Amino acid sequence: MLIESKKSLPPPLYSLEYKTSRTIIDLGDGIRIGDRGIIIIAGPCAVESHDQTLKTAKHVKAAGARILRGGAFKPRTSPYSFQGLGIEGLEILRRVREETGLKIITEAMDCEELGRVAETADIIQIGSRNMQNFSLLKAAGRAGKPVLLKRGASATLEEFLNAAEYILCSGNPDVILCERGIRTFDDHSRNTLDLNAVPVLRERTHLPVMIDPSHGTGRRTSVVPLARAGIAAGADGLIVEVHHKPAQALCDGDQSLHPREFRDLMSQCRLIAQAMGRDL
Amino acid sequence: MLIESKKSLPPPLYSLEYKTSRTIIDLGDGIRIGDRGIIIIAGPCAVESHDQTLKTAKHVKAAGARILRGGAFKPRTSPYSFQGLGIEGLEILRRVREETGLKIITEAMDCEELGRVAETADIIQIGSRNMQNFSLLKAAGRAGKPVLLKRGASATLEEFLNAAEYILCSGNPDVILCERGIRTFDDHSRNTLDLNAVPVLRERTHLPVMIDPSHGTGRRTSVVPLARAGIAAGADGLIVEVHHKPAQALCDGDQSLHPREFRDLMSQCRLIAQAMGRDL
Amino acid sequence: MLIESKKSLPPPLYSLEYKTSRTIIDLGDGIRIGDRGIIIIAGPCAVESHDQTLKTAKHVKAAGARILRGGAFKPRTSPYSFQGLGIEGLEILRRVREETGLKIITEAMDCEELGRVAETADIIQIGSRNMQNFSLLKAAGRAGKPVLLKRGASATLEEFLNAAEYILCSGNPDVILCERGIRTFDDHSRNTLDLNAVPVLRERTHLPVMIDPSHGTGRRTSVVPLARAGIAAGADGLIVEVHHKPAQALCDGDQSLHPREFRDLMSQCRLIAQAMGRDL
Amino acid sequence: MLIESKKSLPPPLYSLEYKTSRTIIDLGDGIRIGDRGIIIIAGPCAVESHDQTLKTAKHVKAAGARILRGGAFKPRTSPYSFQGLGIEGLEILRRVREETGLKIITEAMDCEELGRVAETADIIQIGSRNMQNFSLLKAAGRAGKPVLLKRGASATLEEFLNAAEYILCSGNPDVILCERGIRTFDDHSRNTLDLNAVPVLRERTHLPVMIDPSHGTGRRTSVVPLARAGIAAGADGLIVEVHHKPAQALCDGDQSLHPREFRDLMSQCRLIAQAMGRDL
Questions:
Q1: Yes or no, beta carbons of D136 and C110 under 8 Å apart
Q2: D227 lies in a domain?
Q3: Contacts of residue A166 in chain B, CB cutoff 8 Å?
Q4: Would you state the pLDDT for residue C3?
Q5: C161 to chain A: which residues are within 8 Å by CB?
Q6: Which of A116, A280, D132, D168 could form a disulfide bond with A38, CB atoms 3.0-4.6 angstroms apart?
Q7: Distance between the two ends of chain D, CA-based, in angstroms?
Q8: Is the pLDDT of residue B6 over 70?
Q9: Which residues of D have a CB under 8 Å from any CB of C?
């Protein structure tokens, strides 16, 4: 049937009209995204080796992170940049999960990768460049694992929520929305972190909302201030890039925190979380 | 090997350093994109039925268009909007090509669709939302058909050219770059057509450059003025939405030209093309 | 002399190279902007009457604000909108200061107004539309009162700091920088509050930095979350619109807080300030 | 009276509802802005000396320009950049007008300057940074000379037209609107020239519309293509920076045309104007 009519549509699945209680995504081990606790995801931009991943994982776990991030398949602007270790990277993540007990999140860029990522990861990440890759969103809706969906760099919140709707209406209720910076004229930073998205999203959806202060600013010295600000704005958690040796990182070294800086982030964010009446 | 080094890289395949002569894409029947003639692609946003597609095709052919556009697989913001006729739409395009002699361009949104589109279409379109869908770009590099790559709504020209490089370095030299409007604060139009991209691209690449004044403005009454301006800026062609009954179009009706308006576009653009020393 | 040379220039007056200690602006009565205490400026968008101004002033004072804002001269997009009470508005502000003991900040839009404002106000505001009104900046440099300079809606931080430099090098060391939202494609809010400006400015200048969450978002329900976020990002204070009856406000009613909402803001921001090791 | 009501307002003076015939501004000597002829304004960014101004003036006159631009009072981002020759610059412009017969346009940045500029110039320019300097706009409304109003770098067309309304309703019917590039994420050029503003403005106002391809792109090699495109989009004229020795220009040398390049611009634009059924 070819007729489109907005009037007859029921409220979208993401909306508070459809579901009045906030969605909580329970990963086990007491990790409940969208609940009272602030959840911190941390780790390197890319999985570079087992040694690098394990070292960084131990650092972030010791500081209090519960979930490890790390890219096996990397979306890179240039075809000549490091494209990630691929399947080997997934295998490293699987081992490091066993060795540390951390949960794992990693990105999938196409439907084929998504199947493999879903086998390994606890959360599937869909990156900002793929926010409107509708085939991938539909596949994520059938993947049987929670999905962290990053907002596109020039996506309106309407488009962002509709992208989540593609996943939800394909059968997957566990979607985490992640603000990660938008494109503006600003030249002081790689992106402009749009923290006003947090209260607006909380008024429009029951889904959890996280903040990526690393990509959101692209500046190491801005990550901690904007992490604090994100929690103060009402976010349910953070996803932060940490590398045990940032100067040697194969990507995003400029915005990756050293483990010591990440410990500072955790202690400062803990104070803000408490001021917000939340745990960290 | 994990080392990245810009210094040792040869000039990219898109660059005038790599290839000094302008790329001309020959579709047969005297249609040579990037050559002296201005090429006009026209047709409906979506293939809705054989009747609608054929009627519009006859109109645009009579007015001078050589290539028919029409979406079989449609990227839509909402999962509840018309998603295109899919395979049936491709079949309609195939019939209309036979009935009119027009060449066909249509969009593919994932690797599986791309294979089917490549069997049917003369040019494969990659839409702006998928400009950095790197898996799709690599597949397009192996497709054996020319690719029209639309600029992402917030892509820099550096990112745009690197997206083209993914296709080129995967084995496909026939890439057409298409500027289709960027996202800005402007609220008078759906997008801001960035015509300054035309001279900048011509200085940086040998690939043909086209303009989409329909999506680039989103306003029917702006399409003809910006089509003229695009040719005056130096573009090699236009891609324009035309519907035989715009008020009944299933998508993008607000920016689709009526056949009569399209004839006006052709006659006005012909004068500008002549002033530029080009044919239309 | 017509030669321009960046190399021979000494460090700009705004820079930490020129002055390593943070600037503290002492208004008396223990109000020290840029010091350990977070300073809250609050009040109506426009001075509408003595009654309205006094009522709102008493509310914000009771909640803990130390400085009253209120426009006598109003920059309005349309010439047919309420343009402010002008001189009469300044007189009302003078009376309310005597009646409440609050300090006063109000905007000047041209050199003539600036002289009158400087006689009445404790702080002269230069609005975002005038951030590069260089004649006004030079006049503010000679005014003998502190100046709160709002960032232009599309100003880079380089331009913002250079605008401050016009005031500083004209003889006035007391400049407060205020981030108030930038123009982006975002359509969920009137402006996009750029909180990453806070850490970047703190690395580049000794001047105090404040945040305007009212104009920065343009949404009443976003003001409190972004006020908290601003303090968590490291700002020295806030400027907030409060109206004793927002629904009847002559301008900016959509973003003005009711006194009760402002009390909530104060109590929530106090907790964040404490988490930051600051007072409120 | 403090009540604002949109409903009771008559159509604004800029609108086609208020005045259905297009405004033509007659400067004498057959120079009629907004009529069938395309009007070219050209000259240096800044008046640097009598010799430089006269030389450039002779070049642009020989190529067909009818109006000379040149800044005496210069709005500069940094207070340490060349600020213009001021009164001396106005005197040079007066002399060059007598020596060449060219009309003169130059910028005023505050009310005091505006009085002096109005004595000397044939057209008063209000720059983009002052588009919402409402005191200046009101003064321009009483100046008795035509005003060229540049669009602010992040102004919506609604704001732009309302700024024009300030001038019109202060008693001056002779306003020329000038699109000069907006601020976007684009990093390939200094600004993004918004040519879609041309047809939108033509639908909303009877005032003449000009294009500034020099500031609008900030790239010398883009000026000619975008000048052609501006005329093809329907503009009534151009304002172009030309310097007899661009490499020695005290400001904007990167976007200033050499006299030879300006002659090319004129001959190419003449062909486009003819294709548009207009004269140049």
A1: yes
A2: yes
A3: 79
A4: 44
A5: none
A6: A280
A7: 50
A8: no
A9: 2, 4, 9, 48, 75-82, 109-113, 129-130, 132-136, 152-154, 158-159, 162, 165-166, 169-170, 183, 250
Q: Which of B184, B217, B272 sits opposite D272 (nearest CB)?
A: B272
In tens, the pLDDT along D203-219 reads 999 999 999 999 999 99
**Would you say residue C253 lies in a domain?**
yes
Looking at residue C254, its pLDDT comes to 87
Probe site for chain A from C183, C188, C196 (most A CB atoms < 10 A):
C196
Q: Six-digit token pair at D165?
A: 């309304």
Q: How confident is the model at residue D3 (pLDDT cuts 50, 70, 90)?
A: very low
pLDDT mean over B155-166? 98
Lowest mean pLDDT among C6-15, D23-32, D255-264: C6-15
A245-254, B52-61, D4-13, range with the lowest pLDDT: D4-13
Q: Mean pLDDT, chain B, as a whole number?
A: 95
Cross-chain Cβ contact C225/A198 below 8 Å: yes
List Cα–Cα distances, B280 to A84, B31, B36, B212, D234, in angstroms: 47, 11, 9, 17, 20
Chain D residues touching chain B at CB-CB below 8 Å:
154, 156-158, 182-189, 192-200, 203, 216-217, 219, 221-222, 225-226, 228-234, 271-272, 274-276
* pLDDT grade for B9, boundaries at 50, 70 and 90: confident
Structural domain contains residue D16: no
Cβ burial, residue C3 (10 Å; 0-12/13-18/19+): exposed
Bridge partners of D205?
Answer: D15
D21 lies in a domain?
Answer: no
Mean of pLDDT values over A222-244: 98
Q: In chain C, which residues have pLDDT < 70? A: 1-7
SS3 B131: coil
The answer to whether the CB atoms of B183 and C183 lie below 8 A apart is: no
Q: Could you write out the DSSP letters of every residue in C4-39? A: --STTPPPPTTBTTT--SPP-EE-STT-EETSSBPE
Count of helices and strands (H, E) across chain D: 9, 10
pTM of the model: 0.96
Exposure of B98 by Cβ count < 10 A (0-12 exposed, 13-18 middle, 19+ buried)? exposed
- What is the pLDDT confidence band of residue B3, given thresholds at 50, 70 and 90? very low
Domain extent, residue D269, equals 47-73+82-275
In chain C, which residues have their Cβ closer than 8 Å to the Cβ of D113? 135
Amino acid (one-letter) located at B146: P
Residues of C in contact with B185 (CB under 8 A): 154, 183-185
Query: DSSP state, A246?
Result: G
How distant is the Cα of D186 from the closest Cα of chain C, in angstroms?
A: 12
B195 pLDDT higher than 70: yes
Place of tokens 């196409």: A110
Task: Calculate the average pLDDT of chain D.
Answer: 95
pLDDT for A9: 81
Residue C13 near residue C48, CB atoms below 8 Å: no
Residue B259: both structure tokens together = 């056949």
List CB contacts (< 8 A) between C184 and chain B.
185
The whole-angstrom separation of Cα D141 and Cα D157 is 20
Contact (CB<8Å) B198/D274: no
Q: Give the Cα separation of C42 and A10 in Å (integer).
A: 42
Place of tokens 């609940």: A35
Contacts of B222 in chain D (CB under 8 A): 196, 199-200
Domain containing residue C261: CATH number: 3.20.20.70
Selecting from D184, D186, D195 the residue whose C-beta is nearest the C-beta of B229 gives D195
Q: Which residues of D touch A185 (CB under 8 A)?
A: 154, 183-185
pLDDT of residue A7: 59
Each residue of A75-104: pLDDT tens digit? Answer: 999 999 999 999 999 999 999 999 999 999
In this structure, the strands spanning B67-69 and D32-33 are unpaired
